[in-house]
Amino acid sequence: LQNVKTNASSVFPTEGVFIFIGHIPNSPIFGDQLAMNERGYIITDERMRTSVDGVFAAGEIQDEIWRQVATSVGQGTSAAMQAIHWLEANEETLQPLDEAAEPAGD
To answer: For residue 7, is it within any domain?
Structure first.
């Protein structure tokens, strides 16, 4: 092992190694459209709902504690199920995509 700050090195016998390369959430794409904490993670509630109605987030974009594939898969499943429930509850007010994509004034 080598300390990157002091350059001191030592031998440490081990049977396994986990390499952590750091993590910065790739959230700037959302600008100020979604509420984020001071470190750039999207804030969600326990149902993966964001600050925007109908928008859900899961995984490493909102989970700064666990950041594990298995956890992200579970959160993604929860977010997908919540999105389905939201779509069902709001189906009367939703526009078909082709209508929603038409330029204004046409």
So the answer is: no
